[in-house]
């Protein structure tokens, strides 16, 4: 499967807007939308864990072409912390409780809008990558920190 690209981000943005889903791009896909010069294999979305938001997410994913199993739909509806989807037009990670970020509402207040994309603030992306502490995150963290400094200097 091809890596994350702008067209996928547009498809997510448009379908989620039609279904009134509250979400943020997070992780490397969020950083890429902020201008981070890197690649990733999937889109990472941080979703508000309210029941209605979770239910609408199931419908939006179906509209995008994801063939959810009954178990996947139930996990989304109950806001399971992390759900990896590989049964659609692209790979997608749904995150209801990202490491390093306490509350969706706080991240929402700090978000950045990039061409209609709701994106986690770079500080939240960095905090999440640090807290996750996976090898691949530790390896990319120095580049992400340099990018954050560049973004802040650019103003």
Structure overview:
The protein contains seven helices and six strands. The protein is of the alpha+beta class and 155 residues long. The chain has a domain at 6-95 and 113-122: 2-Layer Sandwich (Beta Polymerase, domain 2). Strand 3 (82-85) and strand 4 form a beta hairpin. Helix 2 runs antiparallel to helix 6 (122-132). It starts with 5 loop residues before the first helix and ends with a helix. The relative contact order is 0.17.
What attributes characterize this protein structure?
single chain; 155 residues; alpha+beta; Beta Polymerase, domain 2; four-stranded mixed sheet; 7 helices; 6 strands; 52% helix; 15% strand
Draw up the topology in text.
Blueprint: H1 6-18, E1 23-26, H2 27-34, E2 43-47, H3 51-64, H4 70-77, E3 82-85, E4 92-95, H5 104-110, E5 112-114, E6 117-119, H6 122-132, H7 135-154
Parallel strand pairs: 2-4
Antiparallel strand pairs: 1-2, 3-4, 5-6
Helix pairs in contact: 1-3, 2-6, 6-7
Distance between the termini: 36 Å
The secondary-structure class comes to alpha+beta
The backbone outline, from C-alpha atoms, is globular
| pLDDT averaged over residues | 95
CATH architecture of one domain: 2-Layer Sandwich
Low-confidence residue ranges: none
Order of SSEs: HEHEHHEEHEEHH
- Major sheet strand order: 1-2-4-3
SS elements, strand count: 6
